[in-house]
Fold this protein.
Amino acid sequence: MSNNIQNKSRRNFIRNGFTGLAGAILVPSVIKKDRKSFNLQKKDRKFIYRTLGKTGIKLPVVSMGTYNATNVTNSALDAGIVHIDTSADYSKGNDERMFGEVFKKRPRDSFVIGTSIGMWQYRKADQIKNTITAKTLRDYIEGSLRRLDLDYIDIYYLGGIQHKEIVEHKPYLEILKEYKKAGKLRFLGVTTHANEPEIIRSATDGGIFDVVLTAYNFRKNNREEIKKAVKYAAGKGMGIAAMKTQAGVYWDKKEKKKMINMKAALKWALQDENIHTAIPSFKNSDQLYEALSVMENLTLTPQEKADLKLNQGSSSTGLFCSQCEECIPQCPANLDIPTLMRSYMYAYGYESPAKARETLDYVGLSNVPCFNCASCSVICSSGFDVKKKVTDIVRLKDVPKEFLVGYWT
Ligand code: SF4
Ligand code: SF4
């Protein structure tokens, strides 16, 4: 599409009533110029390292989670980040391809790559077992090895697990063990961002997995239960990594004025010594620099503690959905509200419209029942106005894909 046509289409698009979304889609931070130039070289820096449980891998406390890998990846690796986490499902495998290119120029022992097969799209365990067969898992593993262009993957995860049955599903475990024995997967893990305590414990007790990557932040309703499960797992030698530490990035979406103090949020998660590393995503040098400073000093200042509003509990609404699923049985249409809320957070918090759209596509909305619902019967535990957020984010389905930065067709 030529620039002229594209600009005209964008004007029409905004005129057609997508103004709020347009802010999230058309001015993503990934295309903002870095405001400052920092010395990101690792010499003279004293990073805090922790050992990723029984894997024995020593990592700086901050690693890198990704979506649409950008040129900040090389800077991050040069600056001392060692571990990168991605997924076969990000950008339809293109994130892995991009990392494959980055890794080609680096010694194999200088980085640790984790990737996954995403299962979070399916709410029910039976749905997962029926859709992702043993052959599908095998194809996924082979696909990741091919796209990353590596002989082995350091940590391979079953991604987005919320059902114990999946952690214990024999056909998956047999294949994972087979690939580990062949040296193609060094370590095995699960990732979880719903029902985390049960998943962490069952992955630990099963004896097959080496690492758990769990959602963990100061705003999660079940953070105390996660903390206990993490302690249990770490005590038994599991490596523990934390994700979603940014808790939605903004306190609210209104004009994006109330941004969560990201350094403080990251430090909060890492105060727990059983969290061996965290995988925030950063898209520019400013965010990378913040992460590097956390790697050197985890102490929360009085101001940072105040910024996190820890005494106010989780009553204040924001962009972070804790994925508690309490809303689903309350909705007569049985709408997958948690996934819609994640899509909303990716669009407005993480400013990743492509990831928001991919997430939305998994919900498979042929129509949106909220438009016909006289009033919403859902009372969300985080205080969200669910109907408002759903009717807002579903408009993303009507946005032409060429407007979505990083979207791969
Ligand atoms: S929308 Fe609210 S009730 Fe539903 S999963 Fe998220 S936090 Fe829980
Ligand atoms: S408005 Fe509320 S109750 Fe009605 S379909 Fe939407 S989420 Fe469900």
Remarks:
- The longest strand covers residues 185-192.
- The domain at 36-307 is CATH 3.20.20.100 (TIM Barrel).
